[in-house]
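Example record for the data management plan.
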Amino acid sequence: MAPSVTDHVVPQFSDTLLRAVAQHAERQAHLTGTYLRNSGFCPDGEIRLPGPALLELAAVLELGVWERRGIRQYLPADLLTYREAADQLAARCMKGPAEFQGRNAAPLSLRIFRVWVEHFAWDGPDLLDADVVLSDADHEDDFIDLLAEFIWTHRNELQHLIHAGGNDEKA
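Corresponding structural encoding:
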């Protein structure tokens, strides 16, 4: 029997992706909440904003994190800069809540999420406490330099792992 117009196709997602998406959402919520508390936007601890406006703010803040960590250069060239995204969000906010209604109410948030899914190791923040960009071969020399810097910076932690692994082999 052919599917009818009323049949709903529910996409299947891996547990790994679902868990990563939930953790990413938690990190964005924490980043946004911290920003709002520290910026003075909610002095009494409460703020009322449309949900899509908060999603857009989280996306802008995440862009800022990526730029400060020096990984923006490994992401798609057509991605807005933090400054561009912040300016666009401010302009939308000045137009009022209607800017954050409808089907395309949070386009930057969707774009940032797509970049994160396609270019980042989903478990990087939880396993390594770092954003790990999965880069293409065009940046191989940069990758080698970053890997060498990472290994040198974390040589003491890695030494512990090497010794722990060596003990398992002897057992």
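Summary line stored alongside the record: Residues 15-134 form one domain.
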